[in-house]
Specification:
five-stranded parallel sheet; two-stranded antiparallel ribbon; 39% helix; alpha/beta; 7 strands
Length: 193
């Protein structure tokens, strides 16, 4: 039985995206072992979870497309999230997407005393590029701690961050060299991912 990997692509700049340049060869390598489904976020697909949506969820209504996506995420063996470092974290559309996928009795449940993740994923790879010189784990990195917290809620397993930092301050040649070295690091991660 082929294992499934979901790629959540929140790279808004497509061909210009440094994060996407790193993502592509890693996904190609992972495609040798996994059946891959890619979800591309472009900002128009999902609505923020607000009063109306909460009322609908409370009455038992969730659009079937959202339920199906959440079920596929819960059934994935691995997840890759690719998102640039925006405003000390990641693009808002990614948070909106995660809130849409955070469905009771699909990605998590709780009994009033504790919560339990329902996803079968064992590893999550978060790929990012940071314009500033912010290291993974630094207090300025708001994304990695969030994905670790999400992993606890949904049951996603180990969170691995692959980041190229300081990209806005490199020459084009230095930036390209950093992209290539980050790809090489990512390909090593892919061997045991």
């Amino acid at each position: 039985m082929t294992q499934k990997l979901i790629v959540i692509d929140a790279c808004m700049r497509d061909g210009e995206s440094r994060t996407k340049k790193i993502l592509k060869p890693i996904v190609e390598e992972l495609g040798k072992r996994y059946e891959i489904e890619t979800i591309v976020l472009d900002g128009d697909d999902y609505q923020p979870v607000g009063r109306k949506m909460l009322a609908e969820r409370s009455s038992g209504y969730v659009p079937e497309q959202i339920v199906e996506h959440a079920k596929r995420i819960a059934a994935a063996d691995r997840i890759v999230i690719a998102a640039p470092f925006w405003d000390m974290s990641y693009p808002a559309i990614l948070k909106v997407f995660i809130e849409n996928m955070s469905l009771f009795n699909i990605t998590f449940r709780d009994n009033g005393t504790y919560f339990e993740g329902l996803c079968r994923c064992q590893k999550l790879l978060y790929i990012t590029t940071r314009g500033m010189n912010v290291a993974t784990g630094d207090t300025l990195d708001g994304a990695t701690p969030y994905f670790k917290a999400l992993s606890a809620l949904w049951g996603l397993g180990e969170v691995i961050t692959l980041a190229a930092a300081n990209m806005d301050y490199y020459t084009p040649q230095q930036a390209e060299a950093k992209i290539q070295s980050t790809i090489a690091e990512g390909l090593k991660i892919a061997q045991t991912f």
